[in-house]
Design a protein that fits this description.
alpha/beta; TIM Barrel; 2 domains; eight-stranded mixed beta sheet; 26% helix; 23% strand; globular
Length: 344
């Protein structure tokens, strides 16, 4: 049997077979109860005669060498490149998804190639990347593959990154965490109504798993796409920022990014720049040390500022950065420790 055939029949982790031939998946917080021959909400994990099969194992839809700032991660290995892989499937159904052609199987034509875990690590090393990111679609759906590759990657001194919606169960995260460095979480809003109507999911499991990621010692950065009329209410943003400060700490980088109409959400305008600036300024006033704006190339709020003296320590313009004013992990002006990871 060749590698492609092996990949097609990879038995999943995180499930329980039941006496009636169904299975209970415990990978994400939908906790799907899956009948024989059926798939879970993600469209990827399939019950075949009481065995849950991870159908996307080693099947790659997108492969790139990206600046790590594209994830975006501003405080984890800044100025380096990350070998980035994506597959297909998602456990959310976001109406504004920018990668809908790979996140929603059946919505578009998708070409997949096979890259086994060891080969992926070899490619990352050949490109002299400092890390591997599982991104583009939700990496939780790729759990078995990413776990195996992460273990090999860490043995080769590469950083490992999940760009995720955070809907993984706590028990699945605990199994993965020894091999994972960074949890780049899309905190899509701070209202249950948004998660239920826009994402077809729930907010609280995202918060609970992200707290667990923090307790497990993962580097965390949050990203919130600010959508006019849906999650741009200033009181909602205040509650979100307060939750991050209280539960993850004031050194947690928060990215507030500009929305552009896409997929099934083309009836709303792009986010006004001033709206983003107000949220950034609110976060700063509330005591968050490292707020950022995204999708606003060249804006002064892309930079990293020292929380003590206020001087720029990492200058950015899009994906171009300068760390000349960062001395190791300290501000080059006042020697304040900056919450940044430069080596794994």
């Amino acid at each position: 049997m060749d590698s492609h055939q092996n990949a097609q029949f990879k038995e999943a982790l995180q499930y329980i077979p039941l006496p009636d031939g169904t299975v209970k998946c415990s990978l994400c917080n939908h906790r799907c109860h899956i009948k024989d021959t059926s798939r879970g909400r993600c469209g990827i994990r399939r019950n075949l005669s009481g065995r849950l099969i991870a159908e996307s194992y080693a099947r790659v839809s997108a492969e790139a060498v990206d600046p790590i700032e594209k994830k975006p991660l501003n405080h984890f290995l800044p100025g380096t490149t990350s070998y980035s892989l994506g597959s297909i499937g998602c456990n959310f159904s976001c109406a504004h998804c920018q990668n809908w052609h790979i996140s929603q199987p059946g919505e578009g034509d998708i070409h997949l190639k096979t890259i086994l875990p060891e080969e992926g690590v070899n490619r990352a090393c050949a490109h002299r990347c400092s890390s591997i990111s599982w991104t583009y679609n939700e990496p939780t759906m790729w759990y078995e593959y990413t776990r195996e590759m992460a273990e090999i990657a860490r043995a080769n001194s590469l950083g490992t990154i999940y760009v995720t919606n955070g809907y993984m169960t706590e028990e699945a995260l605990e199994e993965l965490s020894p091999h994972l460095n960074a949890w780049r979480i899309d905190l899509k809003a701070f209202s249950e109504d948004f998660y239920r109507t826009v994402c077809k999911a729930h907010l609280q499991p995202v918060l609970d798993t992200t707290i667990r990621a923090h307790e497990l010692g993962l580097h965390i950065e949050t990203v919130t796409l600010i959508i006019p009329g849906l999650n741009d209410d200033i009181d909602e943003m205040k509650r979100m920022i307060r939750w991050v400060i209280d539960n993850l700490g004031p050194d947690t980088p928060m990215h507030f990014t500009r929305f552009h109409p896409d997929f099934k959400m083309t009836d709303r305008p792009a986010t006004p720049i001033r709206t983003l600036e107000k949220i950034y300024e609110l976060a700063h006033e509330m005591g968050l040390h490292y707020p950022y704006l995204g999708n606003v190339n060249g804006h002064r709020y892309e930079h990293t500022y020292c929380p003590t003296c206020g001087e720029i320590v990492i200058a950015r313009s899009g994906y171009l950065i300068s760390t000349e004013l960062l001395q190791g992990t300290q501000c080059g002006h006042c020697n304040t420790d900056i919450a940044v990871i430069r080596k794994v």
